[in-house]
Write a structure and sequence with these properties.
Elements lengths: L4 H8 L5 E7 L8 E7 L17 H14 L2 E7 L1 H7 L1 H14 L7 E5 L10 E4 L7 H24 L5 H4 L5 H10 L11 H12 L1 H25 L3 E8 L4 E7 L3 E10 L13 H16 L6 E10 L8 E5 L4
Parallel strand pairs: 1-4, 4-5, 8-9
Antiparallel strand pairs: 1-2, 2-3, 6-7, 7-8, 9-10
Helix pairs in contact: 2-5, 3-4, 8-9
Length: 329
């Protein structure tokens, strides 16, 4: 595999200083998300350079020192637990990436970003899915981000020894949940990531019926947000919560051209996949069958369409991020 393919391609297009960007710590229950930006001399040989997830902690530490010693420029950025709860993990990750790139002492000409979501940097950039295993620059950034975050969590062990962060670095391990059950959340826990734990505690305290009621309330809240959003986009609501023996359609709306069957998805902040990926093939089949039943009982000459509205929502008081995916399936 040519670990410099993407850098070479950018140079062939007239760019000189190529920067790699990656993050670490999207999934943990506690602590910041980190990002690193690295500009390496093109073609430099760094033995055993690879995606940080494939390396041992000892190897990452050794490579960290090597990378910073040879890099033309490097920088570390982060977004803390409060920013993650306020913005959602996706936007907080973008914030950390921008902070890393903006802090570089040497301005890059082009940036290679790990993943498939554009963080909207101030430089020309390219997203590469699985880039930490395909690009030397991104691999180097992945190591710097991972080591920097691990070092931060080791410092947090000194401040919060009861959570043994040195063992799990804030990830949702069995040990971490045991410490949460005993001590509750610390100052650096991401409350938007503790829904599973809080739901379990709620069920223990109040029983399963309370958990179901809370889920129903959240669902209705999300549908209300989606309905208002669509009305503001000049759709008219034709139906809501239409049920059949095959399934349920959250919203049915229409405009001049389409009758639209809408699936509303409240997204967990730790998940990055597109909302349409959350609608399984089986769920799609049930929605389409239920939509056919709705069409059979309503006079309609409009073209049917199936949309998904995904809502990032930390809590009822936060401003949600809404993404409308037309023709989702």
């Amino acid at each position: 595999m040519d670990f410099w393919h993407y850098e070479r391609d950018a140079i062939d297009r007239g760019y000189n200083l190529i920067c790699g960007v990656d993050e670490a710590g999207r999934g943990p229950l506690a602590g910041p998300v980190f990002a690193a930006a690295v500009i390496l001399p093109f073609g430099i040989v760094i033995p055993e350079l690879d995606d940080s997830k494939k390396l041992s902690e000892t190897k990452r530490e050794l490579l960290f020192d090597k990378i910073v010693s040879v890099a033309i420029g490097f920088s570390i950025g982060s977004a803390d637990h409060k920013e993650i709860d306020e913005l959602n993990i996706l936007q907080a990750t973008f914030l950390a990436m921008n902070r890393a790139v903006d802090s570089l002492s040497t301005n890059p000409d082009f940036v290679l970003v790990d993943g498939n979501r554009d963080p909207v940097l101030k430089y020309r950039s390219q997203c590469i899915t699985g880039g930490d295993g395909k690009s030397a620059s991104i691999a180097a950034a992945s190591i710097l981000a991972k080591v920097s975050r691990d070092r931060f969590m080791l410092k947090m062990t000194e401040k919060f020894p009861q959570y043994v962060f040195e063992k799990h670095k804030g990830y949702g391990t069995r040990l971490h949940y045991e410490m949460l059950n005993e001590y509750g959340p610390s100052e650096i826990h991401r409350h938007s990531f503790l829904k599973k734990w809080k739901a379990t505690e709620l069920e223990k305290t109040h029983g399963k019926s309370s958990l179901i009621s809370e889920a129903r309330r959240r669902g209705e809240w999300g549908e209300a947000i989606a309905k208002t959003f669509l009305i503001n986009k000049d759709y008219c609501v034709a139906d809501q919560g239409f049920r059949s023996k095959f399934g349920e359609i959250d919203l049915v709306v229409k405009n001049q051209d389409h009758i639209v069957f809408v699936e509303v998805k409240l997204r967990k902040n730790s998940e990055f996949a597109h909302a349409c990926e959350f609608v399984s093939k089986d769920k799609q089949r049930k929605i389409k069958t239920t939509a056919s039943l709705w069409l059979n009982t309503h006079n309609n000459n409009l073209q049917p369409r199936f949309d998904v509205i995904e809502i990032y929502a930390i809590d009822d008081n936060a401003q949600p991020e809404i993404i409308h995916i037309e023709n989702a399936f």
